[in-house]
Amino acid sequence: MADQRRYATLLAKGEDRRQRILTVAQGLLTRNGSRGITLGQIARAAGVTPAGLLHHFASKEQLLHAVLDARDADDLANADLSGDIIEQLEKVTERFRRSPEMIGMFTVLLTENLNPESALHGRFLNRYRDSVEIIADGIRRGQREGRYRSDLDPAVKAVEIVAFLTGMETSWLLDPSIPVVEVFREYTSALYRQLTLDPSHSRCPRP
Questions:
Q1: How many whole angstroms separate alpha carbon 35 and alpha carbon 48?
Q2: Domains in the chain, ordered, with CATH?
Q3: SS3 (DSSP) at 114
Q4: How far is CA 129 from CA 159, 179, 186, in A?
Q5: pTM
Q6: CB burial string 8-19: b at 16+ within 10 A, e below
Q7: At what angle do helices 100-112 and 154-174 cross, to 10 degrees?
Q8: Mean pLDDT score of the chain, rounded to an integer?
Q9: For residues 184 and 92, is the Cβ–Cβ distance under 8 A?
């Protein structure tokens, strides 16, 4: 029993150390990008030895995938993929308060990997396409239920929505003083009118 407790304690400490490394890496990636930091710098900032970091992440690329996995997990935990598109967009502003470092890290890494030859380009491209398809499916669902216009192309509208989300994150990183909630409120209200052909309707998204 004592051995089991010691083992459980070691596992918990190991997971705490891993999470600390990920948190530190997110901040450094936001400020410096992946090309501006080394595993040694991350290890020092996290208060672990290089060997301790390599115990959890065998390479920088593996660490980059891990921080992106954490961002994806955060998204999934705070989204309803089968929910109403407008309602889901209204919740996006919560991410700016909940996980600003994740927004910064993701945007910086995305910019670094726009070139098809970049190591993470495929991952970002697949994620982008998945995001477009999830939103397009939500619009199609609204069309089938009679809530949204049937003459609207879901794929085209989904590209516009993803572009808005990506642009807002970039703009906010450049100027954190922009009124994110108000901009989202205006956009989702306009989007609702476009989807429903109800120009007189005004939604009041949650702040």
A1: 21
A2: 1-67 (1.10.10.60), 78-207 (1.10.357)
A3: coil
A4: 9, 28, 25
A5: 0.83
A6: eeeeeeeeebbe
A7: 110
A8: 88
A9: yes
Using the 8-state DSSP alphabet, how is residue 21 labeled? H
Taking residue 155's Cβ as centre, other Cβ atoms within 10 Å add up to 12
**What b/e readout covers 64-96, taking b as 16+ CB neighbours within 10 angstroms?**
bebbbebbeeebeeeeeeeebbbebbbebbebb
User: Both tokens of residue 201?
Assistant: 């309707």
Reported as a single tens digit per residue, the pLDDT across 107-145 is 999 999 999 999 999 999 999 999 999 999 999 999 999
HSE, CB side, 13 Å, CA atoms: give it for residue 85. Answer: 30
CB 191 within 8 A of CB 201: no
Lookup: tokens for 40:
């040694």
